[in-house]
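Student: Hello, beginner here. Can you help me understand the protein record under this note? Any guidance would be welcome.
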Amino acid sequence: DEAIQIQALWEMLAENACYESGWPEAQLQCSVDESCWVRGHLNTLAQALENMLRNAIRHSPAGGVVHLGGRRDGNYWHLWLEDQGGGVAQEDLERIFLPFTRLDGSRPGNGGFGLGLSIARNAVQRQGGKLWAQNTKHGLRINMRLLADKTPV
């Protein structure tokens, strides 16, 4: 268990994702304040966020924006990753976290084995957090609730 600054973690993951996917850096946005520190296992949380980021990029249209936002909520940080891929059917919002689940093309993009969000949820839950999905006007929002670090910055 260690203190993890989400903004620094995002910058590293976004740089790698841009390099590997060819996405322009301007399309991966973060509005999480530098005061966002959470408690957890760095490698596990990095894997979870990377899986969510890759999924968001894969399912967003060319020119789309993937955005990480968040706010402090008591002893937790509520973070969310939003894409512009059109969302998923309401009845699939929980199913997308099951291993080997791939939806029937209702979202743009392809590839993968349907493990990324399942791994991400398991990783977040092992750190005492929560991971869930909801549709927005423009796409899918993956929400995370993580324990805030109590160490003053």
Observations:
- The radius of gyration is 15 Å.
- The first helix runs from residue 6 to 21.
